Amino acid sequence: MTLNNAPSDTTQLRPGNASEAPVKATPAYEQIKRYVVKRISEGDWKPGGLIPSETELVKEFGVARMTVSRALRELTAERVLTRVQGSGTFVAPQRYESTVLEIRNIADEIAARGHRHMAHVLALEPSDDAQALDALGLSAGPAFHSRIVHSEEGEPIQYEDRYVNPKVFPEYLRQDFTLETPNHYMVRLAPIQRAEFRIYAQKPDAHVRRHLLMEIGEPCLLLWRRTWVGEAVATSVQLWHPASRFHLAGNV
């Protein structure tokens, strides 16, 4: 494979009538970037796997070394690749992304990436946990409690530990949350008016770590969130994410 290693302001004619207005050629480094991303997205190059060296890519594309170097440098800055001095360039581990400034359904986020969501319900029960009752503004219990592991393409990416106000969602314990997430169920019934959240870097306990298939000592991104429907606190939830496979982002 050989690319036209022309500068970005070079032009090339469209096929057909030579009198047509010229269009700008895609810079060679951009073509290499697209090629690398394509090989990764099609599964030819796996996360954590070594990709061809700069020398090999120079030969394959017939371009200057600085062109290949720029392509790999930009892909590294974009966290598509990771470069280890003395070892080579590797496909970066996949990091799933979620928003924190907009409350979205994790199943929808996963579907938007073209992936399959699966939920494993660990608990769906009444609870008299004192801290949960206080967070929900309840003078007496029980509150409703659910613990669910959400997976993307079979890989667990979120441990959801949620307490729900039964006055707001009295049928919560009767739902099948393998078919519909708690978030989707609650928003469908009663749209959220207000929310507050906090984010922590924290090591999970053995129970959470085991269900997220994490190594001992590996940290989590923990999102604590409380939401209101009208004047009532509707839910208080802790969302645990393996830091090596997830990051939180948002726009305002």
Automatic annotation (TrEMBL):
Signal peptide: none annotated. InterPro entries: Bact_HTH_transcr_reg, Chorismate_lyase_/UTRA_dom_sf, His_ut_repres, Tscrpt_reg_HTH_GntR, UTRA, WH-like_DNA-bd_sf, WH_DNA-bd_sf. GO terms for biological process: L-histidine metabolic process; negative regulation of DNA-templated transcription. Residues 1-24 are annotated as: Disordered. SMART domains: HTH_GNTR, UTRA. GO terms for molecular function: DNA binding; DNA-binding transcription factor activity. SUPFAM superfamilies: Chorismate lyase-like (SSF64288), Winged helix' DNA-binding domain (SSF46785). Residues 1-14 have a biased composition (Polar residues). Keywords: DNA-binding, Transcription, Transcription regulation. Residues 26-94 form the HTH gntR-type domain. The keyword Transcription applies. PANTHER family: MANNOSYL-D-GLYCERATE TRANSPORT/METABOLISM SYSTEM REPRESSOR MNGR-RELATED, TRANSCRIPTIONAL REGULATOR PHNF-RELATED. This is Histidine utilization repressor. It comes from Paraburkholderia phenazinium.
